[in-house]
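pls design
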């Protein structure tokens, strides 16, 4: 860049920035997902799990987890020169849900991460976004050793509408996460277009 202009003589592109939430149950991989795809060092607000929290933090199925997000995770990814996503990972435990309203303000949509070993843990997030008419998709985080189910089986188990995408992913893999985020942006655009059409119609 020279004096605010690109070397090819074109003015710099002012990117569109979009806010995406990453939600789901405790220990489902939200922090991992944000960290694997963020092009900046992600902001994390993780604290060690304590004995005092044991009665309220259900670690069955994620016994190896020793930390928990107490506020949010934050990361950024540039999908194209003109499109930047800001990612906000929500805290998973019920006692931190009061922060969700603040975090969801102005969000384009949400990725609800699901673990097939603890599928019921993502019901609260799905219910939250459905009630507020925030478009979302379900990303099934394929943990090693967990049973694999086709997207339609997960859709049935979660009682999702037919238009809610269900994608299998690996929260540790940058390319896999990018596909999920691109899928969400497309879904949110379709969702907005459908609502505009319904309002006119």
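designed seq:
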């Amino acid at each position: 860049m020279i004096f605010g202009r690109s070397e090819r003589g074109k003015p710099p592109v002012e990117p569109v920035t979009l806010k995406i939430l990453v939600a789901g149950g405790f220990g489902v991989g939200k922090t991992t997902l944000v960290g694997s795809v963020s092009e900046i060092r992600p902001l994390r607000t993780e604290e060690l799990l304590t004995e005092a929290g044991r009665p309220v933090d259900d670690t069955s199925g994620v016994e190896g987890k020793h930390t928990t997000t107490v506020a949010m995770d934050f990361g950024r990814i540039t999908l194209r020169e003109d499109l930047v996503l800001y990612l906000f990972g929500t805290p998973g435990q019920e006692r931190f849900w009061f922060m969700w309203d603040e975090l969801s303000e102005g969000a384009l949509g949400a990725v609800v991460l699901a673990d097939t070993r603890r599928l019921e843990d993502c019901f609260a997030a799905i219910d939250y976004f459905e009630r507020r008419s925030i478009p979302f998709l379900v990303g099934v985080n394929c943990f090693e050793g967990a049973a694999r189910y086709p997207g339609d089986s997960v859709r049935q188990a979660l009682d999702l509408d037919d238009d809610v995408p269900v994608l299998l992913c690996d929260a540790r893999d940058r390319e896999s996460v990018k596909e999920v985020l691109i899928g969400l942006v497309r879904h949110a655009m379709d969702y907005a277009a459908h609502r505009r059409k319904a309002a006119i119609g």
